[in-house]
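seq as requested:
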Amino acid sequence: MTSDWDLAWEAVNRRGAMQRVGELAEVITLVRAELPGLRTVLEVGCHVGGTLWVWSQLGAERIWGITAPVPGPQALHLVAGSEVLWSDSHDPAARLWAEGEAGVYGCLDLLFIDGDHAGDGARRDWEDYGPLVRPGGLILVHDVAHDDLTPDVVAFWAEIEAAWPAQARVITGSPGGLDEPAGFGIVTVTEEMFKDG
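struct tokens:
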């Protein structure tokens, strides 16, 4: 079996994942430990598909992605079992697509939010797609430690930590030669988390 560090290195350096190797390796270790039967994943903000590939390597059977169209050639790494919608995640049609693909609320094992970093973008993705995650599943939010680059995401994450302190934690990993980790916020979903939404 490939080590978590090697898997993260491959994703970042060969498949275009926009994370730091150390923090992505820690996330992979955490997902392996907490979701050993990982089957279903939704990723909001796929860039070129490097982390879509990671989820496939961890055994996910169904992988969905929603990502804004980018100018120029589409270089998305499509992986076995993945379906990607080229759309703004805040478009109501995108949410309907995700609900239809996922089947019903509460069936996703993993939601990875790494799309809109401005204003209420991460909050809207949390509110729109969080209810699709089953209790015991995980929500990952990227860029929660980048005060200077992603202040809106950092502020949103502070609210999540305050509201769900027992379920929320942050992984920053070893920087791997980079000055500042971007940070992954991780939440274990509970039945109460989205019952009003």
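Residues 39 and 178 are 32 Å apart (CA to CA).
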